Amino acid sequence: MASIASLGIGSGLDLNGLLDQLEAAERQKLTPITNQAASYNAKISAFGTLESALDKFRDAAETLGEEDSFRSVATSQTGESVTFTTGTDVALGSFDINVTQRARAYSIATQGVADKDTDLGAGSVSIDLANGESLEVTLSEDKSSLKDLRDAINDQNKGVQASIVNDGSGTPYRLVMTSTKTGTEEAISGVSFSGGLGSALSLDGASEVTARNAEFTINGIAMQSQSNKVEDAIQGVTLNLVEEGESSLDITRDTDAIKKAVNDFVSAFNNLKESIGSLTSFNSETGESGELIGNSTVRRIESELRGVLSAGVDEGEYRVLADLGVSLQRDGTLKVDDDDLDEAISNNLEGVSRFFVGRDEDDGMIGKLDSALEDMLEDDGMIDRVTEGFQTSIDSLSKRYDRMEQSIAATVERYRTQFQKLDSMVAQMNATSSYLTQQFDMLNAQLNQ
To answer: How far apart are CA 429 and CA 75, in angstroms?
Structure first.
């Protein structure tokens, strides 16, 4: 079969150009399909934008729905005798702290030996602790150096840490044994050597550092601690006693953080409302409209959220958002009255917390809101179902597009075949015409003669 490039050679007609025009006209049948697929893809993208805005709103709501959001504290400190960290259930108030003694661990050293690597002789050491525990180490003749003894004690990991110091004398190497914990209850109460170790080693009483507990007062109340890390002497506060001296600590409720959580919630909702407005807008002057204008799923989402925010909660001193100074505007956005919110937080923070958090996860406003958002955002939720429907339509259009392309190709091929026949027929007619013209010219010439 002749190629398309050969069309028109025999007839002299522009059959290639005509075939191109016919093919272009046939391919116009694909335009509605591609336009419809583009429309569905645009809607899927628009729902992605909506889902992102809903996720951000849900995050802000979850933050506001946590009890810890209403337990934030602000702290200030003077003095450097302590550092501190606070937990969730921290007591509010002012606390004057006077550290008069820090806790320390018990420590004692042996008399010195000349070489820390020389074996001292087979034997054992027994170490008793004030808490009733004890450890015993036995060394063989060929593994009885001061280093071997240090390592053997440390390998026991039973409340005693051993180390070797060099005092610079003729017999400089001394074994130092220290309680791993501070305080009198964890102190070393006795050390005894036996065998070859007993002959080579003895304790140096002058090196003894006695254990002691931390002593301090909080608001004049005398306290003791085995450790310099003191937990719950102040409810919800862990103190670290750094040095002797006085410090003061003020712990107040961080109302600014609570107000920020409420305002972040309002801002996230208003941003969501703005996204919905953009996706469903219509410009009467230009005729342009949002991708989701008139979409029933979007209307349902907007209606359900407005319903939850308007309904509030069933119990508590505060029942609706307006009681806290958060009002729903005519345009569907939320607005915060700072004075009313300040008053509610200052006068009844527990009531504000109960409104948002509830007594359990479902009876607070955030719990109700989260249930609605979960139905919208979960797998196989509202948005998933509608976007899956669009994707199914796109897949169907893709198959329809393929079938249409095959039909167009068949039609163009049919035109090509017809044009080839036309080209051949016209070429034959042209040849016949040329022959007859030649014969007539020859006849006329003979007659003229």
So the answer is: 106
Tell which residue, 225, 193, 190, 50, has the closest CA to residue 108. Answer: 190
Of residues 128 and 33, more confidence is placed in 128
In angstroms, rounded to a whole number, what is the distance separating the alpha carbons of residues 397 and 384?
Answer: 20
Separation of alpha carbons 120 and 194, rounded Å: 11
How much is the pLDDT for 7?
Answer: 64
Residue-wise pLDDT for 153-193, tens only, equals 999 999 999 999 999 999 999 999 999 999 999 999 999 99
Entry pTM: 0.67
Place of tokens 């969730």: 88
Q: What string of H, E and C letters represents the secondary structure of 24-79?
A: HHHHHHHHHHHHHHHHHHHHHHHHHHHHHHHHHHHHHHHHHCCHHHHCCEEEEEEC
Q: Which residue has the tokens 């087979």?
A: 122
Neighbours of 284 (CB within 10 A): 7
Q: How confident is the model at residue 8 (pLDDT cuts 50, 70, 90)?
A: low
